[in-house]
Amino acid sequence: MKKILLITVTFFTSQMVIAQGEYGAKFEQLGTQLPTPNTYRTGSGAPGPDYWQQQADYHINVELDDENQRIIGSETITYTHRAPEPLDYLWVQLDQNVRASNSDSPKIKTLSIRNDSIPTKFFQTYVLDDVDYEGGYQIKSVKDHAGKNLPYVINKTMMRVEIPAPLKTGEQFVLSIDWSYNIYDRMMVDGRGGYEYFPEDGNYAYTIAQWFPRMCVYDDVNGWQNKQFLGRGEFALPFGHYVVNITAPADHVVGATGELQNPQAVLTKEQLARLDKAKKNYDKPVIIISQKDAEANEKSRSKEKKTWIYHADNVRDFAFASSRKYIWDAMAVKIGDKSPLAMSYYPKEGNPLWEKESTIAVANTLKTYSKFTIDYPYPVAISVHAANQGMEYPMICFNYGRPKPDGTYSDHLRRGMIGVIIHEVGHNFFPMIINSDERQWTWMDEGLNTFVELMTKREYYPEYANGSETPQGIVGYMKGEKQFQRPIMTNSENILQFGSNAYSKPSAALVVLRESVMGPELFDHAFKEYARRWAFKHPKPADFFRTLEDASAVDLDWFWKGWFYSTDHVDIAIDEVRWFKVNNDKKQLEKRVKANKKGPLGGVEDKKATEKAIDFSQGAQPIVLTDMLPAYYGEFKNRVDDQAIRESYADANFYEVKLKNKGGLVSPVIIEWTYKDGTKEIEKLPAEIWRKNENEIVKVFSKSKEVANISIDPDQMTADTNTNNNHFPKREENSKFNRFKEKSGK
Asked: How many Cβ atoms sit within 10 Å of the Cβ of residue 642?
């Protein structure tokens, strides 16, 4: 039963005044900022009934020339066209041309010279043209399935291939490309692939990536995604099946995307037995090629060659690593009804750290990511040791983490190595399976991946789950100068502060979304639904935004607008707190009864009620609850017991709290109440509390106990950038201490 009571309390007038402020622009729907749903992509965020995508299947023969550090390859591409419109030509990516003499990448760099640059960075940054390296592809031929030459035009990192007749829906076109390029020294030339030279034993370790001409994506949103590769924005690639024959020196060990098809031809009987044992061992890695074996290989200089044959189904790319220095270990991981192999390849320079940690980290990653997305579908997941690197491809990635020559290493190095392995292995899910357009939207792979990386650390390495990818860790970036920031929804090449914008901020945003807005249960279901819907497809930002709302029944447009489309930050301040108690004094009651003749909000405010309290020392202000006048009952025949209601509130404490949004980013409000008896209570208010005024709000709370302290976001769950204004009473001593920390850099 509702209690109807006339309350002549001045804080109600405050609520009315506040409501006259700015109305909820931040709560308007995204509307036309998102593309119109259609039969390809629905308003729910799911693929539509007419969704389609292209397919590119590859058969590649490649030779690694270890004497001249060169790649020689030939490939046959079978391109399946499923779009409803015909194609007049095909676009192919030539990523190695980013290092060709006519590349735009060095021309568009705008940097000032530093007088303390180290030589390698100086060359990489300022005088790449002077480095003794001839980059880019040498395209020998482009032919059709009958061996006839096809006309082509190379525009820097893109090649347009002319086809004899328009390619119609459902048709296939087969083309062959012969090519070669010089592998670069990663110490001198910045890039994702390349080689590392080891002068102590005269060997090379090759991490070969972006090494073959690859088909561009053609989709329903952009048509051809043929934006030039400028070095930062990564890749948009179609799925397909791969058969790759890799010829290397006979004493090399080759790890690659996919499953090895001819282990008997390239491994010894002992190595085969160890590999078979690894497939049944779920507890710890099995050494397939030991450090002793690798050290013996280092001394070998075989003139013979071996061909390693790898097959990979339903992948968007292919990479491999090759060296005579590699140690190799592996273990099985139970994922649903499958047991993929987690594996690592590393030279002795990576030990003992890599033998101890790498493959375990791979296995841990597959378990957590499968929990948050879909079960890992591929047969292997590989981590390869490569100096100063972190880069991902389907089923294989290249990661740093090298101990000192005596084998010792710091916790900082261990943290970095485990973090990069989780991150790069995690990229198997984003974007290798849930295949977003990295060239356009970096956050869709890096940001989502960084978030699940954090979830993996929380589960297996909690001591490392406190970096910049958390709400606490992103504060420094969020409160920085806005001229040096861009919204998350910014093209990869135009981002400022790349790591913070594309990795850390999206991850921190998703933590806030999961733990302060939606709750883990709703968020996890919706996030998993997005992964399920878009596995092995090409999602766009709107598909992600819409799916999370569709699968949770939570309106999140305000969240996407604030976190993803703006550079606003969270800074909620407690501006004022007023404490009230019900006053049952008869004289006050009579005074208020007379005042009520002027109306329900009539009467004269006490002077004390208009003063801005700095703490609770002045005690509570009185609330006078008068009897209900007959006129206010209207047509109701029932009557309430006014005195009984007054008595029921006799011991209650009412706290009127005024909050100000100083950062502009609307946010849930998490309040910690500390009572005089020492107990605490956490209360959460949804972000919609700001819907009628985005600048300030006033809310009244009823508490049975007296409050000693009020704090906003006590556990730093919302990325609030200024905790000094989050307390009542104010903490002047804390503010001074924080200002000292900021000035001193401590």
From this structure: 17
CA distance 225 to 218: 6
The chain-wide mean pLDDT, for the chain, equals 91
| Cα 564 to Cα 139: distance, rounded to the nearest angstrom | 41
For residue 290, give both structure tokens.
């030991």
The 10s digit of each residue's pLDDT in 65-102 is 999 999 999 999 999 999 999 999 999 999 999 998 88
**Residue 319, helix vs strand vs coil:** coil
Spatial distance between the Cα atoms of 525 and 528, rounded to a whole number of angstroms: 5
In whole angstroms, how far apart are CA 723 and each of 125, 322, 413, 570, 671? 40, 51, 32, 10, 13
Q: What HEC string does 141-158 produce?
A: EEEECCCCECCEEEECCE
261: tokens are 């098809």
Q: Are 516 and 523 in contact (CB under 8 A)?
A: no
- In the block, which residue shows the tokens 């004390």? 608
Tokens, residue 379? 């047969």
Residues contacting 709, CB < 8 A, separation 6+: 673, 674, 727, 728, 729
Per DSSP, 97 falls in state G
| Helix (H) or strand (E) segment spanning residue 307 | strand 305-315
Taking alpha carbons only, the member of 485, 342, 539, 535 closest to residue 421 is 342
Name the token pair of 251. 């004493």
Q: In angstroms, rounded to a whole number, what is the distance separating the alpha carbons of residues 139 and 160?
A: 13
3 state SS of 306: strand
Contact 373, 531 (CB under 8 A): yes
CA dihedral 367, 373, 377, 379 (to 10 degrees): -30
Element (H, E) at 587: helix 586-595
pLDDT (tens digit per residue) in 112-152: 776 666 666 665 565 555 567 899 999 999 999 999 999 99
| Per-residue pLDDT, 587 | 61
Location of structure tokens 């009412």: 654
